[in-house]
Request: fold
Amino acid sequence: MTGPRDDGNKVAYPAAWVGTTLPLAAFTTSLPPRHPLGALPSPLVPVPALAARLGAHTFLVKRDDLSGPRFGGNKLRALEWLLPTLGDAVVTMGGYGSTWCAALAVTAGEVGAIACPALAPQPWTDTVAGILSTTSAHGQVTLAGSELGMPLALARAWLGARRHGRVSWLPAGGASPLAVLGSANAALEFMNQVEEQGFPRPDAVLVPVGSCGTAAGLLLGLALGGWRTTVIGVRVAAPLFANASRVGRLVRGAERLLRRHGLRARPTLPPFRLVPDQLGAGYGHPTAPGRATQAALAEAGLRVDLTYGAKCCAAAQGVAPSFPHLCFWHTFDARLMSAPATDHPLVARAQRTAEALWPHPKST
Ligand SMILES: Cc1ncc(COP(=O)(O)O)c(C=O)c1O
Reply:
C-alpha cells in the first residue's frame, strides 16, 4: 500500500485507508499530516458478565487500551496527529503518573524529538511508579515538589528543552483541536464495528474525562456519523480541567480545523452528560467505588487502573437503568508501565515527595 500524498501541510489519503484505519478521511478532502502509531481498529468486545451484573442489556468494551503494538490507549490516538508538529524538544505537563507524558516520551523519538515534561505530585501507587519509570527512561523529566511549584518546574523544563533546539509546547493531556481528530476517528471506527459485528447501537458511551480531548472527539465522530448515542464523560481530574465547556470548545476547534480541510457536513452533536461524583479527593486519588469496580472488572477479565478506568466504570451502575445498551471506552494500557525503577534517583525522589504529601493514600 502506498502512503499518504503530502501536499504542504495537508495530506490526502489513499482510498484504501478511508474505511479501515482512517474513516475520518471520508468526510474531508484532505487531513493534516499524521504519524501512524496504532494497530487499528482496536477490538470491540461484548462482556455479558458485566451486562448481567449491571442489569444492562449489552455491555460493550472498546479496547482502545489495545490500540497500538507497543502500547495503546487514547493518547496514542492523539499523538498520531501531534507528533508531526513537534520541534526538537517538546514541553508539556501532567501528574507524576501521567500516561500522556509517558506516551509522549516513548513516541517523541520517532520524529526526532525529546519530551521534557514538568510533573506535579499525585498519590503514590505502583501504577504511578511504573509510568514515571517509563517517562523518565525516555524523556527529560522535571519534578515539581507541589502544585504551587509547577510554574517554576515548567520554566526549568523549558530551559532544559532549549538545549536540544527548537522547542514546542503541548498542553496537559495533549488536549488540542488537532489531537481531537484521533478520538473523532476512533468514534467512526467504533460505529463501523458496531454495525459490522451486529451489536445493538449503544445508548451511551462511558469515557473518562481528564483534559477533555477524548470525550470531545467521541462527540464529534458520533455527530459526523449521524448517531445520537449519549457520551457520558466521567470526571477524573479537577473541574478546572475537566468540564463541559472545555469539551465544547475542543469540539468546535476540531470542527473548524476539519472545515479548513474540506468538511462540508454540519454535524449535530449527540447529548453529552458529565458525571462529577466519581472524582473523590482528586486526580489520582483512589476511591472506594473505584476499587470495588476494579475488582469486579478483574473477575470479568478486564484490567483497569484506579485513576481513569475504574472511576469511569464505577459510574455504570448509576446510568445503566436509563441506558440499557452501554459501552465503556477503555483508555489505559498497562504496557506503558515499564518495570518500576524505584531505585532510579528521580523515581525515588518522586516517591518521597508524594508519600510526604499523602502518607496513607486512602480510598475516598
Ligand atoms: C489512560 C487515560 N484515560 C483517560 C484519560 C482522559 O482523557 P482526556 O484527557 O482526553 O480527557 C487520560 C488522560 O490523561 C488517560 O491518560
Notes: DSSP finds 13 helices and twelve strands in the chain. The chain has two domains: 27-73+177-335, 75-174. The longest helix spans residues 177-197.
